[in-house]
Amino acid sequence: xxxxxxxxxxxxxxxxxxxxxxxxxxxxxxxxGVTLGSRDDGAxxxxxxxxxxxxxxxxxxxxxxxxxxxxxxxxxxxxxxEEGKPRLxxxxxxxxxxxxxxxxxxxxxxxxxxxxxxxxxxxxxxxxANGTIRAEIVDAHLLFDADVTVPIREGEVEFKDAxxxxxxxxxxxxxxxxxxxxxxxxxxxxxYQFASTPVAGVEFERRGAMLGPWVTDRGKLxxxxxxxxxxxxxxxxxxxxxxxxxxxxxDRTRLDGExxxxxxxxxxxxxxxxVVGRAEGRxxxxxxxxxxxxxxxxxxxxxxxxxxxxxxxxxxVRCDEVAGAFKLRLYVEDAQMQFAFDLxxxxxxxxxxxxxxx
Length: 358
Prior knowledge:
The chain is mainly β.
């Protein structure tokens, strides 16, 4: 029963079912300080001082999940026997730690959802984000390179402050009703075209009196509403907004940047949390790439969030606090976008799963 119970706990915590729980599979479990009790409704209450699992590997279709180490402390599980097997009904743990977690596979974006899902995205930490994005574009066709710097201040991109430096007169970035553009000495070209207006979070460029040709204000981008608007669009339309010229440039663009997130609510389909800790230097996002068109690295060394809720197959997992570090790599392989997610470490307090113990 111990092995089956351990597998059931992992099934609930990780949201996946182990293909095998035998020793030959490499999935190893250890339980310390086990106590048993019964309830009037026939359920079994199991207390475990320390639950450990190591060297886990789970495959679900094309996705592969690996867990180096998982530990749960002061765990109380409510178990029911169904068809002769123990099934975890609810669980709570004072704290938990994970390390060496790896998930990789093809990146498959979900179909565009309708109705309430439109409001599922909330990117509050972007509202007061600060940082700088730097890019170096190697343009063999024009025989010069360009250095791009985009400062982000309190969640806003003022295009008048963005610079595109190269040989000859520098280019300028901006936002018009048609999209995000670069004005170069040889004319205007668009990096991203808006399928329709209005577009949330964009202040468009302004021209001089009498609709003259001179741009007096390059416009502004408010990151939170713009990113939320972009994520709520059908995925195909969002991708179609990137122009062919931009796609060619991305293959020759080296990227490096840092974004210090503010405190605020983060919500996406199936997950939500309060991102906190800006005053302590937490939640700094670093991005880098040798060629944006081929892949992108995202590193977060000091994540901190509270009141986190994760939906897994109709069950909610709640955590009082989550702290850790992770790396995300997006890359192209055989014309298919792939992802590799590495969770170096994660510490959880106040873990709860199911209704009866929450």
